[in-house]
Structures are given as C-alpha cells and as structure tokens.
Amino acid sequence: MTLSHLRLVSSFLASYIRAMKRTHRLLAFLLSLALFLTLGPLLVLYAMGYRWGVRSGATQEVGVLLVESVPRRAIVAVNGRVRGATPQAVSNLPPGSATLEVTAAGYQGYRKQLNILPGQVTESRTIRLIPEQLTAHMLADGVQRFSLAPNRRALAVVKNNVIRVIDTDGAIIMPPRTIQPAGALLWSPDSTYLLMQHPAGAASAVNLAEGTVQALQVLSHAVDIVWDPRVPARLLALLSDGRLLAYHVAAGKSEVIADSITAFAVSSRSIYVIDTAMQLHQLTLQAEEVAVHALPPVPAVTLLRVTPAGRVAIQFEDGQLAVLTDHNELLPVAQKIQSAGWSPDGQLLYLQTDPSSVYVYNVADERHGSIPIGQQQLVVRLSRPIHDIQWFAGGGHLIFQVDDELVLAEIDTRDHVRTYTLDSTNLGESQTEVGEEGRQLFYLKNNGGSTALVSLMLTASPVDRTYGIGSK
C-alpha cells in the first residue's frame, strides 16, 4: 500500500470518528435533556414538600411532626416506626391521622392520635412522661402551712406558731423562730425575705440572712401586699383607705405612690392600678405614669391579673373576665368565672367557669397546637368539684385537687386529654407547690392524724432519689 493510500484511509477513519463523537455528544445531550425534563419537576416538587403517594398513585404534599418531651431523649415512634429520640423533627409524613408514641425506661408511655397537615409543621412540644412508680418522702410533720421559695431551693414551714426554713431534702437552713399565727406566706423575688400576713391584720418579715423576724406595723391595715419585682426588700401594699404604699423593709421607710386606689398588680417593669374613677393607670416602678386606660363604669373591678411581660386580665364584680389588648381595647374572655390564672409564659389563661369544669383560653400563643388564638377549649370536666388549680412547670399542664386526689392534666385537647392521679392527700388540703422544672412536688398530706409536708419526685432518672412515706 502506497503512502497516498495510507493517508486516504487515515483521513476516512478520522472523519468517521469525528462523526461518531458528534453523534454520541448529540445522544448524550438529548438523553440529559430528557432526564432533566423528567426529573426536574419531581425534584422541585420534592423540595416543596411533595412525595409520591403509593396508595393514591400521585404526588402529595407531606408534613413534619415536631416532638419534645420531659425527660429528653425519650424514644419517638410514629405509626409504629421508631424515628429517633426527643427532641425530634419527624419529616416526610403523609397528611392525615398519625399515631405518636413516646416512651422512656421507668416512665409510663405516652400515646396520641394527631392530624398531620400537608406542608406544615405539626407540633407536640409539651409531652411530660410520668414515672411508673411514684414515691413520696416526708420532709416535716405537723405542718400547718408552707411556702416554696422562688429559687426552688428552700421551704418555709409553719408549725404551732413556729417558723423554720428547710431545703428541699428537709435539712435546716434557718433555725425555728416563734411567730404570731401566720396566714399567707410570701417570698421576696430574691428569696432573701419572707413576708407573713397574720389573721389579725398584722404583718411581719423574716430576714433569712440574719434569721430575724421584723414586725411591719405600717402595713397592719393592708388589704393586698406584693414584693417589688426589681427593687430588693421593697413591698408594695394597698391600704384599706385606698393609698398605695411602697415600704422598704431594710430601711424601715415608706412612701405613698398613689391614692384613691381600688386594686393593683405588678409586672416586671410596671405597676398597674385602678382608681375610684374606674381608670387603669400604668406606672413605672418609680411611680411615673406611663398610660391611662378608661374602663366601663360598671361593674366594679375586683381583681387584676398581670403577667411579668405586662399582659393584663381584669376580673369584674359580676364574674366577667376581660383582657386588655395591645390596642388598649378590652377583649371579653368569659362571662362568669370562679378562678383564672396566666400560664408561665403569659400567653394562655386557665378559666374555671363552674366547680367541675376548666377551660384554657389562648390569648397570644401562635404556636399552640390545639387551641387557636382567641378561642377556648374545655380541658377537664368532672363529676366532682375541682379546686386549687395552678399551672404546672412549662405551661403545658395544669395541676389541681379533686376531693383528696392530686391530679395532673395536659392541656393538649387533640385526641384526648391525658390525666394522671399523682397521690392522695387523705382528706387534707394539699397547698401544692411545684419544684424546679416540675421535677418535684411539695404538698401537705394527712399522715396518721398529723399533717405532713411531703416531696414527690416526678423523675425516674437513676441519679434521683426516691423515698418511702414516713422516712426521714
């Protein structure tokens, strides 16, 4: 073969290879385009929260379930499939009914049917697991009255006109001191003073650092007394003649900051007072006026309830309850209530409308899973009277007494409300106080004819101690 023949063959092969590469490139381009046109919309739908429904044979928007619990690290299962430990966000859930189960060693299991909404986060963030075994520990016997300090580390205990202060294990912090018969006990916000109101109208204060009891003669005619939330050792008292008094316990000095007052309450930064002209005044803690709100002339106001953030609820003489909105308008909440109270975050109100029914009204919680803003839901209705209602730690539960039973009830009304009977007071008044983060309860229990102050642990953690009733 000549050189010219070789060149001709080489040129032919090069042309053929170039043609093949163009064909391959064209085929690759067309294949990529087809894949993009096919998978692109699916990827977009996936990113938007849609999944292919096996039963429906079409794409459907999925939801997310956010689960939080006390204790943390509890096992989460949805529709029988374990999805991790709390706190947990369970994604890619098809819309519709889903069974949530939360379990932890040593605790009663939790189960609830929830409705998963497409394209939304469904929340179950207030789950509290209760130990399988609940055991009480007696801290003191023969107790008439007690009060838990704001720091949740000390208890003032009154027995036979003697007061002492103990820690949450029963150890003595302040030795016994003889006092007048005591009614209400009120700790200062910094847990350094304890105010005692006596049945005869007198008042006295205990200085825990010094272990002394100081009579407060200037407050002997007070109809309502609270501690100043910011100024240490300062009391605010409404006297029977309508004067609002600020009294400095340490200095023994007082000053009138308002008069012609019928009711008052404090937030973390303000004092709210209602005068005889039915005007609601907002004052600074230094008594400088910030705002004035006119109220209806009738009926009269009997009680103010104010959150630390300054949200105001007003109870009227005829039993009506209203909330002052951010636009300074009165929003009716209930026509007739027996008791009410703000949740710890100041966004919900519990309402007791009759002796055996308790509702929760959502004032401002946009994230609440079961109660829309501006609506109320029935939480508990029993055949027996409910009393001594208070919010439990975190605001997801209420604790109250029914006959001689201490009952804890969740406020999540979806599916059904879980309730737990924690203990029996043996026909006594419990005066229940909730310990730090709800890990411990303190209450009075009739124990063989004597009233004992007991502690109930609400954790099954192996590092926590449990006790038998009657042990020291």
UniProtKB/TrEMBL annotation:
Transmembrane segments annotated in the record for this chain: none
Residue ranges constituting the PEGA domain according to the UniProt record: 63-123
Top-rank taxon, per record: Bacteria
Designated name of the protein: PEGA domain-containing protein
